[in-house]
Amino acid sequence: MFKKLYYAVTGDPNEKVLKKYRPLVEEINNLEKAFEDKNPDELRAMTQAFQTRIAEATTELRAELAEAEQEYLDVLGTEEQKFARVEVERIKKELRKEEEALLWEILPEAFAAVREASKRTTGLRHYDVQLLGGMVLHGGRIAEMKTGEGKTLVATLPLYLNALTGRGSHLVTPNDYLSKVGLQLMGPIYHLLGLSASVIQNSAGNPDQGSFLFDPEFPNADDRFQYLKPISRRAAYQADITYGTNNEFGFDYLRDNMAQDITRTVQRELHYAIVDEVDNILIDEARTPLIISGEARESSNYYVEFAALAKRLTPETHYVINEKEMAATLTEEGIAYVERVIGTDNLYDPEHFDMLPYLDNALRAVALYRRDKDYIVRGSEVIIVDEFTGRLMEGRRYSEGLHQAIEAKEGVKVQKESMTLATITFQNFFRMFNKLAGMTGTAKTEEEEFQRIYELEVVQVPTYKPIIRADHDDLVYRTQEPKFKAVLEDIKEKYQAGQPVLVGTVAIETSEYVSNLLKRNGIPHEVLNAKNHEREATIIAQAGRPGAVTIATNMAGRGVDILLGGNAEGLAREQLRKEQIDLSAIHQNDWNRAIDMLKHRQEPTTAFDDRWAAVVAEQWHAVERDKEAVRGLGGLHVVGTERHEARRIDNQLRGRSGRLGDPGSSRFYLSLEDELMRKFGGERISGVMARLGVEDDVPIEAGLVNKAIENAQTKVEGYNFDIRKHVLRYDEVVNEQRNRIYDQRRRILTEPSLRLTVEDMVASEVRVLVAEFTVGEYEDEWQLDELTKAVRALAHHVPADLGPERWHNKKRSEIEADAIALAHQAYAAKEVEVGEAILRNAEKQIMLWAVDSRWVRHLTDLDRLREGIGLRALAQQDPVVAYKREAFEMYNEMIEAIRSDTVRAVFSVQLQRQQAQQAAPPPPTSIARNIRTNRGDGGGDSKPQTMRKSGPELGRNDLCWCGSGKKYKSCHMKSDQKEGATPQRVAAK
């Protein structure tokens, strides 16, 4: 109410944006006739003219930026780094501002060129509302456009415009199919205008596979990859426009920052991206980060043992379930039972601490995670099902041992535990783009999250034609049995009349239950869920045919329109494949011309004598007849078998019906036993129905009930938003550290010589040693004999007569300067010994090894810190503040360790068989044997253990076991005592 009153006074912000853009639409329309008269070469020349105009207007700023970036690299690692970075960001911001102003000037002509190219290549003309949508996307906003409004075509406008800067444009999709088909459909537009366009597909981590360039002249035996020319992943990113999935873009970013050579990196600047199904990618999938992990150790037998034990526990007797919190807790009786089974008097005795996480995960796996709802089992693999889209999350694994617990529960092979090598959340990855935009059919209900996390405003773009779909009130039953009986009767009635029906479910098991009901009643149907992912596009495309009944698990993100009467082109291709006609031999221009002729009531067989033209015409006419019949029956009828936690998922299901002004209807059937109703308000509504004497098979149909359900959904949406904010607050701490490490790594890869950097590291390491052994005000308190040993152990090439007397009666600053000079002399001697070129190369490899190994160890340590940091709240501490403070301290320790590892390894470089061999100490973490990407929040709960050499026990003043040269009391003594480890003395060499 208050919002309506506020808008009445200030004006609707959505309408304000559209009002600003409408004059530009008129300007584009006025240019249409002139552009129709241009030949293809003239259209292509306009692209070159746009690019030249932008380049010339920004020449000075680009030169200034290049100079500032070089200065930043020169001071990286020094106190001046922060100021240099600020200057780089200032110039970048100024350059982007200048480019943005130029693009808005160019926009009317650019959009007119894209519209004309689309008319000539795809036969599609951008409507005025689609031009508005393109402007919304170019402005860095989210365009909410209903299903069927042509978002794929809309995206071509801003993608082309922003690619003119030469920085590249990305279109991000939820799956490989949509990105591939999107490029195949829209690629001819970019090609005609002279821009290159590519697509990246899942390549199992191999950057030389799964990447294609759109080339209309490239012959491909597989018509599914028609016009797609295989190229390297690096070349795909160099294209003007790149299509791909959110996972691939994110994993490529992480892989680039694990590369051992600059030539193995593939991405360029993250400039502009349009995220398709933006709510699915930036909200639904944002709760779990992208992780690249490697195997670290074999899985514990506890997984199998506790899985068997958990299956013997009885709900309510041995444990209780909290569905809202997704938690299962042992009762007193349950604790006693477990203690009897494992043979102990106290389950929570410290000696059993190591097994408690396995017990907890086994209980969660049995009590809370259900097969064919939360995951499926395919072969010997447990695959997670996305709760919002029903898609299989290939490669994704639950974290902290939960996935292994589910594998043990299902009796499949328990995969090895893993360690994190690189990770980033989608929030932080997509916020790295200079400009971000998104499009979806349902975003308004999540506008607050888009604004607060991504600074993205949601603009609702008007539909091309008014929506006339009839959305009926929900029918609420007391139990599930009468609910599904009513669902069956509704479907049967529509099927017998010939009206197509789309049935939406929230779980695979529900889909199969409804499918069995329909089979028993002789109703033919198709099932679309995570188990037959490969056929989903074909199934959905034909879901609007007369009498079609389609069951689908969560319709979000499907990306394929349901056309009343069916999809004529899809049916034609299917028929041609049955007749064994080679689709790859049909040129796309000929196909488009045939479709265009049919749209204008002309027969393509008059222009093409081939069989394919006759098949296309036959299917087109059949679909047109069916379309009219379906429209007369009321269009597509949507049946929802349960409300989803998020309102927008329900809206997406409804939105499948009534596209582009088509008739349609929708109805949701609920019961008080549904999961959402059980969690929120079900008991209250049940009490009302009982007081009114309502029978089980008599539903409630009232707006009041609908309001209660919507309130429940709003609560869940807020709860899930809090979870995502919580994840982001912690990851933002890691994000700053990650950016610094990746900047340092990029410099290592690009710098021709790291000599000055290594010299600075040597000096810093010597200063640490001098400070360590000259504690105290007077010289007789200093340990100069230990200092000489430490300097000799560090630099090797020092004078043979170096002894403590060299530094007697000298100030600490004089000792420091002399020790640094000795170390630099030793460094110069090492360069002479192995050769300058060899040492330069060795330094690069050593520094990469030091950064990578310590960073991996740091990520593992941060994971362990996260696991227990929540307990700080019991001590009246903010866990996030505590996490920030300790993570900062850990980061500084890591930087010192990187420096120490690098210096000691450089001084240990030796020549063997005329080749530079690096005699570096072993990495400080376990080496991953197999690197893999896990689309989820981890792939296990690996906690690599520190390896220590055996020997006599260390004393406080002995040199630390880690080889740093520091005293044990000033190095690892505190951490060892925390872990209860026994320190061992390193045997003298």
How would you describe what is shown here?
By secondary structure, the protein is of the alpha/beta class. It is built from 33 helices and 26 strands. The strands form six sheets. The protein has a nine-stranded mixed β-sheet. Strands 17, 18, 19, 20, 21, 22 and 23 form a seven-stranded parallel β-sheet that branches. Helix 27 packs parallel to helix 32 and helix 28 packs across helix 32. The radius of gyration is 33 Å and the shape is globular. The N and C termini lie far apart (80 Å). The C terminus is likely disordered.
Fold blueprint:
Elements: H1 2-10, H2 13-36, H3 40-57, H4 59-74, H5 81-121, H6 128-138, E1 142-144, H7 151-163, E2 169-173, H8 176-192, E3 197-200, E4 211-214, E5 228-230, H9 233-238, E6 241-245, H10 246-256, E7 272-276, H11 278-282, E8 290-297, H12 302-311, E9 319-322, E10 327-330, H13 332-342, H14 356-367, E11 375-378, E12 381-385, E13 392-393, H15 402-410, E14 417-424, H16 426-430, E15 435-440, H17 447-454, E16 458-460, E17 470-471, E18 475-477, H18 480-497, E19 501-505, H19 508-520, E20 526-528, H20 536-541, E21 549-553, H21 568-578, H22 588-599, H23 611-633, E22 636-640, H24 647-654, E23 664-671, H25 675-679, H26 682-691, H27 703-750, H28 755-773, H29 784-795, H30 812-834, H31 836-869, H32 879-907, E24 910-912, E25 915-917, E26 931-935, H33 973-979
Parallel strand pairs: 1-15, 1-16, 2-6, 2-7, 3-6, 7-15, 17-23, 18-23, 19-21, 19-22, 20-21, 22-23
Antiparallel strand pairs: 3-4, 4-5, 8-14, 8-26, 9-10, 11-12, 12-13, 24-25
Helix pairs in contact: 2-5, 2-6, 3-5, 4-5, 5-7, 5-8, 6-7, 7-8, 12-14, 12-15, 14-15, 21-23, 22-23, 27-31, 27-32, 28-29, 28-30, 28-32, 31-32
